[in-house]
Amino acid sequence: MSDLADLSLQNSGSAKKPQDLRQFSTQELYNFLDSFDTILSDCDGVLWNCHTPIPGALATLKELQDKGKNVYFVSNNSTLSMKDFLKKLHTQGFPARKEQIIIPSLVVVWYLKSIDFKGEAYVVGTDPFKNVLRENGIKVAPPEPDSVKEDLAEVVKALQDVPSIKAIIHDFEPNYSWMKIMRSIVSLRRDDCLYIAAALDNKVAVGAEHPLLGTKVFTDIVSEFSGREPTLTGKPSKLLKQYVYKNCSIADPERCIFVGDTIQQDMGFAKLCGFKKLFVSSGVTSLEEVLKEEHLRPELYIPSIGGLLPLLKNLPPEDARAGRKPQ
Fold first, then answer.
1. What are the C-alpha distances in Å from 51 to residues 44, 215, 262?
2. Which helix (H) or strand (E) element contains residue 267?
3. What is the pLDDT, as a whole number, of residue 2?
4. CA–CA separation, 35 vs 257, rounded Å?
5. CA 229 to chain centroid
6. Would you say 242 and 274 are in contact if contact means Cβ atoms under 8 Å apart?
7. Tally of CB atoms within 10 A around 248
8. Which residues are CB-contacts of 111 (< 8 A; sequence separation ≥ 6)?
9. Minimal CA–CA distance to 253: which of 265, 234, 235, 269?
10. Strands (E), the chain
11. pTM, two decimal places
């Protein structure tokens, strides 16, 4: 059974509307801060839309880190290299370490090494994605030719099986082609070939009004014609949960908050992990849309995570908290 199917079968949860952080009293904000040790955040639609920063978003996470919270970034976006990811975060004012960044390509490497993978991986994905695999000792199969003679006999010849390909890996790829899809289908006719999907997003956040088509439509085509369902390594997946629990040293999931802007990917992953769900509507999904999904309904809401910053900045000093006296 797929991870998405598993999520749909989990208990429906409360039908209450999420609590709006903007309406919290001072004491409620203190209680909120006391309720978690770790905050994990999606990136696209939460911290930025494409290259446009969402005002105050990263400054909020830096403020929380300065207050002693563990901060991690969990993205389905592998179009950036780790170096580029770190540069983007640093440029926008967050002094991130590579250990704080979790992207699907890293989870793919971790999974393949855990099963002692041998052979070549045929990767439908960006160069940064492929480079993460290469840098970690995974052999990446050569791509299809840029063009094939428009003759069916030549097409069939070009699509002869390559037995050395032992894994088909799909991620976001702006240069998808019919040949890449067919190469995937041909290879997956063999039982010894793995099928891995690093992300199954329906939409890619570049702004709420005009999201891009995500990868799911293409992996669905491969699944339909190959009869194979992919092993997922992005949000929401059990493998990503295992990776996060291990690499973020999660001891008590109830002491963790996940911030996201999508229903199935972000709120679904938070539910799978047992984290508190904080939904923001700064990305591709509206609050009205997420409220329709009762089994994934978030406990907390704010239009943008950046809106939390002034609330944190305006909190009285710690010694002024209710029930506490100055030292």
1. 9, 20, 19
2. none
3. 44
4. 9
5. 19
6. no
7. 18
8. 196, 231, 233, 239
9. 269
10. 19-20, 38-41, 48-49, 52-53, 70-74, 101-102, 120-124, 139-140, 165-170, 194-197, 203-204, 212-213, 231-232, 256-260, 276-279, 300-301
11. 0.87
β-partners of residue 256 are 38
How many CA atoms, within 13 angstroms, populate the side-chain half-sphere of residue 20? 6
Q: Cis link prior to 55 (omega < 30° from 0)? A: no
One-letter amino acid for residue 267 of the chain: M
Residue 260: beta bridge partners?
279
Which residue is it, tokens 């907390």? 300
Q: What is the pLDDT of residue 4?
A: 41
Q: Exposure of 43 by Cβ count < 10 A (0-12 exposed, 13-18 middle, 19+ buried)?
A: buried
Q: Which two tokens stand for residue 312?
A: 């944190």
Rounded to whole angstroms, the Cα distance separating 27 from 213 reads 43
> DSSP letters of 20-68?
EGGG--HHHHHHHHHT-SEEEE--BTTTEETTEEPTTHHHHHHHHHHTT
Q: Give me the pLDDT at residue 321, please.
A: 57
The encoded tokens of residue 200 equal 């199954």
Q: What is the mean pLDDT of each run of 10 residues along the chain (327 residues)?
A: 41 68 96 98 93 95 97 92 93 96 95 97 95 96 85 90 97 91 96 93 68 85 96 95 96 97 95 98 92 95 98 82 46
Two tokens at 214?
């995500």
User: What CA dihedral angle connects 159, 162, 163 and 169, to 10 degrees?
Assistant: -90
> What pLDDT was estimated at residue 181?
94
Residue 277: partners with Cβ closer than 8 Å, 6 or more residues away: 18, 257, 258, 260, 266, 267, 270, 271, 296, 297, 298, 299, 300
Q: What are phi and psi of 263, to 5 degrees?
A: -80, -70
- Spatial CB neighbours of 181, under 8 Å, sequence gap ≥ 6: 124, 218, 221, 222
**Tokens, residue 182:** 């067919």
